[in-house]
Amino acid sequence: MRLLTLNLRHGGGRRMPALLSFLLAGGADVLVLTEFRNNAAGTALRHGLLAAGYTHQMASHDAPRGNAILIAAREPFRVRPEPDLRFDPMRLLNVEFARCGLLGLHLPNLKAKIPHWKALLKLAGNAPGTHRIYLGDFNTGRVPEDVEGADFKFTATAHMEALLHKGWSDAWRRLHPHGREFSWYSHRGRGFRLDHAFLSPACGPRLRAAEFDHGVRERGLTDHSALLVELES
């Protein structure tokens, strides 16, 4: 099972044809796309994905304005409502596949993300032994591993650490324990690793690959790198 997450940056706009080509070339079974928008570009994206075999799709909301999460897959899934996630349906989309549960997310910045992290931690402890993935743009990291320069402080690093202490795996870090790659750069050129895949304790042993594709960002198609994760079926 191959999963890819990418922040489209303001819905993609005129960059959408190139973004669609990139997504189709990635060979993923499941896509988690953040900053998706229900506009003309978003409609073109969904049609393009549908024609390419991503016949199962769900957006976190259908309002014509504002960012959403789009999950598109080649295999069936169902939306799984979680009471603790209802406070922000635009940024949190929880679904269930036959092989695992998946929470696609795009957390806000600074202290606004604290309620989201508390909900993630509560959900992580609700069903021990289940196969579950948190995937998307967390706007969170650790110092110094996930940022250029030790003078920066992330908000909610302690919450991320608490998730790891529950036995969850940072997929990319698990396979690159001494690596340093960044998925987003500030206007001042400072790199951050903000896009993550976290695997529940039961799901962790299924991890086979976790790699960033920086080309989509370096080409200016969006301001984030893509993260591709592969799990054993």
Topology (elements, then pairings):
Elements: E1 2-7, H1 16-25, E2 30-36, H2 40-51, E3 56-59, E4 68-73, E5 78-79, E6 92-96, E7 101-106, H3 114-126, E8 132-137, H4 157-165, E9 169-170, H5 171-175, E10 184-185, E11 191-192, E12 195-199, E13 207-213, H6 215-218, E14 226-231
Parallel strand pairs: 1-2, 7-8
Antiparallel strand pairs: 1-14, 2-4, 3-4, 5-6, 6-7, 8-12, 9-12, 10-11, 13-14
Helix pairs in contact: 1-2, 3-4
Shape: globular
| Termini Cα gap | 6 Å
Count of DSSP helices?
A: 6
Order of helices and strands: EHEHEEEEEHEHEHEEEEHE
Question: How much helical structure, as a percent, in the residues?
Answer: 10-25%
Alpha-beta classification: alpha+beta
Question: What CATH architecture label applies?
Answer: 4-Layer Sandwich
CATH superfamily (homologous) name: Endonuclease/exonuclease/phosphatase
Strand content: 25-35%
Strand order of the largest sheet: 3-4-2-1-14-13
Q: Give the integer mean of the pLDDT values.
A: 96
Name the poorly predicted regions. none
The strand count comes to 14
Number of domain units: 1
Q: What's the story with the biggest beta sheet? A: 6 strands, mixed
The CATH class turns out to be Alpha Beta
Q: What is the radius of gyration computed over CA atoms, rounded to a whole number of angstroms?
A: 16 Å
Under CATH, the topology can be stated as: Deoxyribonuclease I, Chain A
